[in-house]
Automatic annotation (TrEMBL):
InterPro entries: GDSL, SGNH_hydro_sf. This is VPLPA-CTERM protein sorting domain-containing protein. Residues 1-22 form the signal peptide. One of its GO terms (molecular function) is hydrolase activity, acting on ester bonds. The lineage of its organism: Bacteria, Pseudomonadati, Pseudomonadota, Alphaproteobacteria, Rhodobacterales. The keyword Signal applies. It comes from Rubrimonas cliftonensis. Keywords: Signal. The keyword Disulfide bond does not apply.
Amino acid sequence: MTLATRLAAAALLAASAAPAAAAPVGAVYAFGDSLNDCCFIGPFTNGPETWLPAFAAAVGADYPTPETAARDYAVGGAQSGPINVIPDTDAGFGFDTGFTSQLDRFEADAPAVGADDLAVIWVGTNDIWASALPSPSLLGLTLNQPLGPRPEVDALADHVAGRIGDGVARLRDTGFGKALILTPFDVGQSALTDGAESSALQTAYSLAVRDRLSGLFTDGIDTWTLDMVEVIASLQAGAPSNGFAFLNGFESCAPFGSDPGICEARTPAEQDSYIFYDAVHLTTAVNAVVAERAAALVTLSAPIAPVPAPAGGALLLAGLAALAAVRGRTAAP
């Protein structure tokens, strides 16, 4: 399937699916790392845009152009906490650029948002790949490892999902009525690693974070979670009949450490055959698929619902309440 075909499918989705939405989507605001960064440092892909403009068009939402990018707070290298995976990035800009710091800047800007507006969050990849390394360095770069080298899988998953969950609650409190979370894909598929052990740990972290986020419910805000582990895995499983021939960051359009222009110098058809643009970022062809999947999720699927209490737990609570009532009556004069 060519990029043109994928974009046509996204346009068809915009025409057919948007009227079925439970409520319209107003403006799209973006937070996170380079996968959402349209204009701060990025875009990090072989085309002029991330996946967000096509997604916004498909759901009938307003999204900023690079010239009016005030609603995209994402920064390449951002981690789920306050700082960047490369501390020198924050030092160079003179302020912290991580997800929680993006929320600080958003709250300071105090834009008027409402129940129809959608916050899009894609972050965690930079926590994962850096934490899986045995030391805080790669290719001479000093890295931020939020919990130190190689923390327990559950600890890192709780850290990343906790920061994202807290962020969704903060966005709700500013007035947002909708949030879309994209999980990290399997970061073990990237080339940001020092060997097989780190790659395996990146995969374990990715799956655990995905599982934490898959049912993340925040009261008072409609939330959807797109499973990017599944999205990329489905493209890999469907190759080569779907047009993809190069499937991971180790066989990317612009190989790790090379000039990114190597990818842009290839023909459009050649570029469309790669899932990964470089060691960790996605090609325009994949971004079109992400936009399509995300739009279908938001327009055609119900938001995440709270997990009901187990029947046994509900009966226990009812029994305790009844016992308390009996004790209250027997103790009354």
